[in-house]
Structure formats: C-alpha cells, structure tokens
Specification:
Blueprint (H helix, E strand, L loop, with lengths): L9 E6 L4 E6 L5 E5 L3 H5 L5 E2 L4 H11 L17 H10 L8 E2 H7 L6 H9 L12 E2 L17 H10 L17
Parallel strand pairs: 1-4, 5-6
Antiparallel strand pairs: 1-2, 2-3
Length: about 180
C-alpha cells in the first residue's frame, strides 16, 4: 500500500482455491495493493478497515478462478512507481493469460528496449499481484514449452500454480551443479 494514497483502504481476502489473496481497495474500488501475505503483513502497520470487496473485484476474481481470465484486467488498479516502472506495469496488464513473456520482451513492449533488469524490478516490487500479472514474466532461459516459472514475490511454487491455472505448461528447473557453479 502506498502511503501517499488518501483515505483508509478496505482490506479483504479472497480464496483462489489453492491460495488466499489479500486485496486492498480505495473508496472508489480501485485496487491499491494485493498479495499472498496476510492483510496485516501487506498493510505493514498502516491503518485499514476490513470489509467486503466491491462486487466488480469479487466478480473478476471469481471469473479468474473459473477460467475467465480477461475480466481481471478490467478491474481498475492504482499503478505506482517511477514513470518507467509504471510503463512496465501497464504493459504487464496487456500480457494475456495463458502466455508468458521474457523480461526483455516486457521491456521492449514498454518502449524500454535495453532495460530488462528494470522489468525485473517492476515485477519484484509489484504491489498488486495477480491484478498486475508479473507471474506471466519469465527469464529468457526459462521459455518453453514447458516454461520454468522462476522466482516470484510470493514463492516459486505459487508462480507455477498461477501459470498452470492459466493454462501454461510448466516444468521444474534443472538443479544447479553446485560443484561447477552451473
């Protein structure tokens, strides 16, 4: 949650069937934060009130859970960050469910061709998980099919579950050979 946002946000959890998603919205029903931590962990000491999510958010999450993935991108999201991070996060919302892009492809789509590491930062610091679908971004070396999910703000296992739910074939990464460093 961004400390610059005015008003006391409403926080609630929603069951995806395989995980609980914590969601915060402002008075207008715009998602301002979401993640797989508890409401209190995401709020990090900032005040919030508990209640029911607005119907457009609940209906979009129910649709996503039932396989209608596009409706989630119709939910308004307060996208924060530097202008370049905002560009990248806006592009994330255009990556369709059932597909993945690399960090380099995301940067290119955002008009930031040589900034794949910034694309990684936009994902790793994403305050609105699922609504800004950073789980759809993988390292260039992990493109499949099947893809290797890689790391995720929640856990590697969560990213695999989200991608699998959206119809992406995933596989585990080959274990590193610690003796050789590869």
């Amino acid at each position: 949650m961004d400390s610059q946002h005015t008003g006391t946000p409403l926080g609630a959890t929603f069951s995806l069937g395989f995980a609980e998603l914590s969601v915060f919205v402002d008075d207008a029903g715009t998602v301002i934060a979401s993640g797989f931590d508890s409401l209190d962990a995401i709020a990090a000491g900032r005040p919030y009130r508990r209640g029911d999510l607005p119907s457009n958010v609940t209906e979009a999450l129910e649709a996503w859970t039932n396989g209608d993935f596009g409706r989630l991108m119709d939910v308004p999201v307060w996208i924060t960050g530097t202008p370049k991070l905002v560009q990248l996060r806006e592009q994330l919302r255009k990556v369709p469910a059932g597909s993945v892009v690399t960090y380099g492809e995301l940067a290119d789509r955002a008009g930031l061709r040589y900034l794949p590491r910034l694309a990684g930062r936009a994902c790793s610091e994403n305050p609105c998980l699922l609504f800004v679908p950073c789980h759809r971004v993988v390292a260039a070396s992990h493109v499949g099919p099947p893809v290797v999910p890689g790391s995720y703000a929640a856990t590697e296992g969560m990213k695999a579950q989200l991608l699998t739910h959206e119809g992406v074939s995933v596989r585990e990464a080959k274990p590193r050979d610690e003796s050789s460093g590869f």
